[in-house]
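Hi everyone,

Forwarding the result from last night's run.
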Amino acid sequence: MKALLLAGGMGSRLLPLTGQYPKPMAPVGNRPWLEHLITQLRDQGFREIVIALKHYPELVRGYFGSGRKWGVSIDYTLEKEALGTAGAIKHAESKLGNSFIVLNADVVQELDLKPLVDFHAGHGQAVTIGLTEVEDPSQFGVVELAEGQRIVRFVEKPRKEESPSRLINAGIYVMNKEALQLIPAGREVSIEREVFPKLIRTGMGVYGYQLKGYWLDMGTRARYRQVHWDVLDRKLPIPIYGEEIRPGVWVGRQCRISPRATIVPPVLIGDKVRIEDGVTIGPYSVIGNGCIIKEQAELSETILWEGCRVESGAQLHQCVFGTGAEAGPNYALYEAVVNRMKEAVSL
């Protein structure tokens, strides 16, 4: 079965980080999330992958190419205009088989997909939606299920007390190709507001299956940080690239860390990182490859992408720095989200 990864979203809620990156390429644990997703799919037997692109497609193509390095075969589609979830699936129709799985590539998850695929094959209808349970469904599209797991309606962002369930669309679908007949070509189409209700009305059959495991939409700054804390706490059990030199401290290759630096776990440090005297890092910090942290700097609950530089005496708390961003000497930043910053408010 082929897997279609929807990777064309702009990620506006993660700006400025996504100003130069497609959202699924945002690093999680110092690797693009899309890389983690592709290796997960490979390990579950999905070896043929189609990636639907729009924003900065050259970055994804340049990174993954044919997919051979990861043991998969990757093909691509490119949207000239935004087509929405359903429109992107329709656009990829010629590259898909009679049944296929679709995943929103910017949702972080660690899920066993085989039971979902088996359930879909068992009922033989048009679509099965992977569902996940959340504590507060008021920010999501909620489903109402009838007997046999058949979906009878969708409720968009209901009040918590009025929600028919706590099961939401996880952005994972197993579809038969005949369902694409109801998707108009060449325009933006919403799968939840337009296509799924139409499939229900026409009797083609939309079913839901609750998935078990980790799931989190990383589409906001707070949730993007939370994904990293879950990696460090091993609630999200994706691979950590580095040696665990002591409990909760992972360090990559060719690093230079002063013995007079303080590392407070949990912390992940990438490859070729330089950390100087008197630096304090942690708890809950991820330092990207090639970063330089100068003397007496302090970082806590902070994520640095690769190539960042933090000058002497700078203090960063709950910050996210994009690739190559800088903090000058004695700068103090709290909850800052920065892409290639050159200036900030000084102490």
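The CA atoms of residues 107 and 217 lie 5 Å apart.

Cheers,
N.
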